[in-house]
C-alpha cells in the first residue's frame, strides 16, 4: 500500500468528498482546490493530517501545503477521488468564480507578471554581477575595478549587457505577450505589438530628456512623436489590453472566411497608432506618477515609517495575494530610477521568516517529526519560497510569524534609511544580495544580519513567555 493512500483518504473526506471538488491541481508544494462549497472543508481536520503542513485560501483556491512530495501525493489523491488531472489554467478560470473584484484584479496582474519573473531574476543577477566587476574598485589600492585592469572581464562586462538590455529595455515585448496570452489573443501579434513600442526606429526612452528635437511621423494634418517606451510597464499593459479587446471582439463579428486577414490587421494597426498617440503618453505619465509617489514616500522624512509599515505587513500581504501588485511597482521604479528600493525589503522579509523557522528548529531540536517539516521549509524560505515556512511552521505557532514581522520591520528601516537600491527583482532570499547595487552591498548585508538575528532571538524569547506557551498549547490541542 502506498504511503500516501491513508493521508489521501483523510484529505478527501475532510475536503467534503469528491462531489465537493470542482477543480484540483498542484504546484511545487501545494494542492490547489476550487471547491463547490468551501464551507464543507474541515480545516482543523485537514491540518491534523500528518503529511499536511498547513492550509490557506488565496485567489479563490483552497490550498493545502504538502511539500516536495506533492506530485506523488497528488497522483494518489486524484486516483482515489476519481477526479481527472486538470491544468492550472482551468483551475484559475474556475477559481475566479469565487473571487471579488479586487481579487480578480490582483489575479490578472499575477497572471501577467508571473511568467516574466524568471527573466527578471536572471536580469537582476546579471546587472548585479556587472556592478561587482565594473563598479567596485577592489584593485590597486582601491582605485581600479576588474574591468579596468582585465580585458577578459571588460569583455564579460560588455557581453552581459546583451542579456541585460534584452530583458529590461525590451520588457514591453514580454508584457504585451503576457497580456495577449492571458486574454486569449494571438500571442505572436502581442509580441509584434511590443516590438513596435521599442523599435530601433524610435528615440530611446532614456534619451528623451536630453534631446532637443524629437523625431516625428508627419501625416500632413498631424504629427506623432517617434518615442520608444523601453522598460515602460503601464504603456505596454494598456496597449496589450486594447489589442486583446479589439481582436477578441473582431473574432466574433468577422466571418471565418476572411478572419485570418481582417482580424489581425484591424486589431494590430489601430492599437499601434493608439499606443503612440494616446496610450503611451498617458501610461508614461501614470507610471511616473506611481514611481514618484513610492520613491518620494521612501526617501522623505517619513520614509522610515513607510519602510516600517511595509516591512511589518509584507508577510501578511503574501497570505492575501496582494504582494503581486509590488511587481508592477518594482518594474516602474526600475524604468524611472534605474533601480528599486522596494524589492530589497521584500527579500529581507523572506529572510526574516526563514530565521524564525530556524529558531523553531532550535526550540524543537528533539522533535524529529517537526524537523522533517521545518528544515526544508527554512532552506526554501532562505531561497525565496516562503509558503512552506509561513504556513507549515510560523502561522501554526503564531509567535514565530510575529517575530519575523518585527525583524523584517527593523531590517526594512535600515535598508530604506540607508537608501539601498536593487538593480532588479532577484531571488527573494539570501541570494538576493546579488541583485543589490554595488554601493549598497555592505549596508544591505547588515540589514540581512538584522533580519536573521532579531527574528531568531525574538522567537526564542516569545517561546518562553505566556504568548509562546499559549500558542504551543493551542497547536498541541489541535494536533490531538
TrEMBL record:
Biological process per Gene Ontology, one example term: phosphoenolpyruvate-dependent sugar phosphotransferase system
Catalytic site: 27 (phosphocysteine intermediate)
Keyword flag Ribosomal protein: no
Keyword Transit peptide: no
InterPro entries: Glu_permease_IIB (IPR036878), PTrfase_EIIB_Cys (IPR018113), PTS_EIIC (IPR003352), PTS_EIIC_1 (IPR013013), PTS_IIB_1 (IPR001996), PTS_IIBC_treh (IPR011296), PTS_Sugar-Specific_Components (IPR050558)
The protein's Enzyme Commission number: 2.7.1.201
Membrane-spanning parts: 105-129, 158-180, 187-207, 227-246, 258-282, 302-322, 342-363, 375-394, 401-420, 440-463
One GO location term (cellular component): plasma membrane
Gene Ontology molecular functions: kinase activity; protein-N(PI)-phosphohistidine-sugar phosphotransferase activity; protein-phosphocysteine-trehalose phosphotransferase system transporter activity; trehalose transmembrane transporter activity
Annotated PTS EIIB type-1 domain residues: 5-87
Domain PTS EIIC type-1, first and last residues per copy: 107-478
Main localization of the protein described in the UniProt heading: membrane
Subcellular localization, as worded in the UniProt entry: Cell membrane
Keywords (A to Z) from UniProt: Cell membrane, Kinase, Membrane, Phosphotransferase system, Sugar transport, Transferase, Transmembrane, Transmembrane helix, Transport
NCBIfam families for the chain: EIIB_glc, PRK11007.1, PTS-IIBC-Tre
PANTHER family, sorted: PHOSPHOTRANSFERASE SYSTEM TRANSPORT PROTEIN (PTHR30175), PTS SYSTEM TREHALOSE-SPECIFIC EIIBC COMPONENT (PTHR30175:SF4)
UniProt-recorded name of the protein: PTS system trehalose-specific EIIBC component
Gene name tied to this protein: treP
Amino acid at each position: 500500500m502506498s504511503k500516501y493512500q491513508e493521508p489521501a483518504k483523510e484529505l478527501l473526506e475532510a475536503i467534503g468528498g469528491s462531489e465537493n471538488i470542482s477543480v484540483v491541481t498542484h504546484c511545487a508544494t501545494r494542492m490547489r482546490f476550487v471547491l463547490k462549497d468551501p464551507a464543507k472543508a474541515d480545516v482543523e481536520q485537514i491540518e491534523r493530517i500528518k503529511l499536511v503542513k498547513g492550509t490557506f485560501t488565496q485567489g479563490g483556491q483552497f490550498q493545502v501545503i504538502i511539500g516536495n512530495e506533492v506530485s506523488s501525493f497528488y497522483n494518489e489523491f486524484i486516483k482515489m477521488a476519481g477526479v481527472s488531472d486538470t491544468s492550472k489554467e482551468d483551475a484559475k478560470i474556475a477559481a475566479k468564480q469565487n473571487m471579488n473584484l479586487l481579487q480578480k484584479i490582483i489575479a490578472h496582474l499575477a497572471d501577467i507578471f508571473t511568467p516574466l519573473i524568471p527573466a527578471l531574476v536572471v536580469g537582476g543577477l546579471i546587472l548585479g554581477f556587472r556592478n561587482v566587476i565594473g563598479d567596485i574598485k577592489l584593485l590597486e589600492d582601491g582605485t581600479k575595478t576588474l574591468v579596468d585592469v582585465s580585458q577578459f572581464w571588460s569583455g564579460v562586462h560588455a557581453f552581459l549587457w546583451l542579456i541585460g538590455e534584452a530583458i529590461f529595455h525590451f520588457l514591453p515585448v514580454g508584457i504585451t505577450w503576457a497580456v495577449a496570452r492571458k486574454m486569449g489573443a494571438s500571442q505572436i501579434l502581442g509580441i509584434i505589438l511590443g516590438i513596435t513600442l521599442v523599435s530601433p526606429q524610435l528615440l530611446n526612452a532614456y534619451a528623451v530628456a536630453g534631446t532637443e528635437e524629437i523625431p516625428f511621423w508627419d501625416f500632413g494634418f498631424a504629427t506623432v512623436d517617434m518615442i520608444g517606451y523601453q522598460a515602460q510597464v503601464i504603456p505596454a499593459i494598456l496597449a496589450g489590453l486594447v489589442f486583446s479587446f479589439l481582436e477578441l471582439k473582431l473574432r466574433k463579428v468577422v466571418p471565418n472566411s476572411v478572419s485570418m486577414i481582417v482580424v489581425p490587421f484591424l486589431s494590430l494597426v489601430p492599437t499601434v497608432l493608439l499606443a503612440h498617440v494616446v496610450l503611451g503618453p498617458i501610461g508614461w505619465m501614470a507610471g511616473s506618477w506611481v514611481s514618484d509617489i513610492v520613491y518620494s514616500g521612501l526617501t522623505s522624512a517619513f520614509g522610515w515609517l513607510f519602510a516600517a509599515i511595509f516591512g511589518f505587513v509584507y508577510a501578511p500581504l503574501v497570505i492575501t495575494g496582494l504582494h503581486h501588485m509590488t511587481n508592477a511597482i518594482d518594474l516602474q521604479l526600475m524604468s524611472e530610477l534605474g533601480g528599486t528600493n522596494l524589492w530589497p525589503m521584500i527579500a529581507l522579509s523572506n529572510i526574516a521568516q526563514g530565521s524564525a523557522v530556524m529558531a523553531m528548529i532550535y526550540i524543537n531540536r528533539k522533535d524529529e517529526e517537526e524537523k522533517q517539516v521545518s528544515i526544508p521549509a527554512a532552506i526554501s524560505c532562505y531561497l525565496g519560497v516562503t509558503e512552506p515556512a509561513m504556513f507549515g511552521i510560523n502561522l501554526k505557532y503564531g509567535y514565530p510569524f510575529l517575530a519575523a514581522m518585527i525583524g523584517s520591520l527593523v531590517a526594512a528601516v535600515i535598508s530604506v534609511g540607508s537608501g539601498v537600491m536593487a538593480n532588479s527583482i532577484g531571488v527573494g532570499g539570501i541570494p538576493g544580495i546579488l541583485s543589490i547595487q554595488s554601493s549598497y552591498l555592505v549596508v544591505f548585508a547588515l540589514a540581512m544580519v538584522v533580519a536573521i538575528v532579531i527574528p531568531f532571538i525574538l522567537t526564542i524569547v516569545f517561546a518562553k513567555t505566556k504568548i509562546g506557551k499559549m500558542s504551543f498549547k493551542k497547536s498541541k490541542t489541535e494536533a490531538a
